[in-house]
Amino acid sequence: MNYQIVKEFPHPMMEKGKRPVISIYVDTHIKKPDRLENPIRFKNLVKEAQASLKDKEFKGFKDLFSLFKEMEEDALFWEGATESMAILGDEEECIVYKLPVNVKSLAIVSDSFYIKPLLRSFQSNGHYHVLGLNRDNFVLFEADRYGITEIPVDARDATMEGVLGTEKTAPHLSVASIGGDQSMYHGHGGAKDERKVDQEKFFRHVDTFVLEQYSKKQKIPLILVSPDEHQGEFRKLSKNNCLIDEGIKIDGDALDKKSLYEKVQDVIEELFKKELKDRMATFSEAHAKDLGSDDVIQIGRAIAEGKVASLYLEENTVHPGRFDPQLGTVVQGEIADPRVGDVYDDMAEVVLSRGGEVLILGKDEMPTERDLAAVYRY
Question: A Pfam family in this protein (predicted)?
């Protein structure tokens, strides 16, 4: 058995339905000498998982535990550690997520994978496009929680020269006689007007190119990076609904890739904070109209009936037990028995499987004083 480092979430392995499964989260150190502790932390978590399995089940996981031992001793595996790792496995497969956020170290053996820390990580640093635009050229990037990568674009599409070529606007001239054989040429518009016409043509091309080739297909946020004078000009003519209001008003050529990525991350973080404020207002309004709740019993029933559009869960909270997705009932468990799983995690899986969304929030980000809340479908 081998492990696979993945970025896709949810991953097909999570939908196989094999039971039980093992979820291990390691809060890793990324700097020496502390990062030398990472394999030890992992080893101790593996022991916790082993202790949760019955003798018969343990035999089925023999290959997975052998793989865990190889991972523990693989210096290169830990050399590439990020802020944390999620290692998920069943009797047949093992996948690894390298996460850019801190998570609580834990090991859970249950009937389904523990996914709340993954939800938290993936929701805060999503997938997006970055458009670096200047007067006569542009560059396009694809970015996510792991970094930023330039998308190759042919010069015929990425530069004004390549797009307009011989169609660049020429000055319009008229001729007036001043006597004899002499004539005077009058220019209409001049170089400044020509540049303005060409720039608008090029910007329209850029907007159409990005929209048709990328935004319509992937439907992810588009962040505009350009000098202040081009921000307004491009937005006036843009037809791209993925273009967000928050832009970065700077010449992208003045930034190296790392600096650009940091500024883009700041924009995404502010966007997420604004979205949270809007969601709090939405929950308050829905709650007042009995279209939302922060009561676990009511929410459980709504999930079973497929009525939950958005489920909010407080991070780093665990409620041992089981959730019945058919009846919407909760059976409490003992925290000392990791086999029972986490009620809220079970709820999250059902909501996602039925087309709803799940957000994992900090205590001060929750729309209510309780550690769960839901907005129902209208």
Answer: baeRF_family3
Give me 191's structure tokens: 């170089």
Q: 231 and 132 in one domain?
A: yes
User: How far is the CA of 230 from the CAs of 135, 199, 234, 265, in angstroms?
Assistant: 8, 10, 6, 21
Q: Model-level pTM?
A: 0.69
Task: Supply the CATH number for residue 192's domain.
Answer: 3.30.420.60
Domain containing 48 — which CATH number? 3.30.960
Best CA proximity match to 30, nearest among 76, 82, 85, 86: 82
Do 110 and 220 fall into the same domain? no
Host domain of residue 260 = 128-271
How many structural domains does the chain have?
Answer: 3
Q: Same domain, yes or no, for 92 and 189?
A: no
Q: For residue 261, give the amino acid letter.
A: Y
Per-residue pLDDT of the chain (378 residues; tens, 9 = 90+): 999 999 888 888 988 777 889 999 999 988 777 888 999 999 999 999 998 887 777 788 999 999 999 999 999 899 877 889 999 999 999 999 998 878 889 998 888 899 998 988 887 556 889 999 998 899 999 988 678 899 999 999 999 999 888 666 655 444 444 455 554 545 555 556 777 888 999 999 999 999 999 999 888 899 999 999 999 999 999 999 999 999 999 987 888 888 998 898 888 888 888 888 898 999 999 999 999 999 999 999 999 999 999 999 998 888 888 899 999 998 877 655 545 678 999 999 999 989 999 999 889 889 999 999 999 997
Q: Which two tokens mark 219? A: 């439907």
Q: In terms of domains, do 266 and 146 share one?
A: yes
Q: How far apart are CA 122 and CA 141, in angstroms?
A: 19
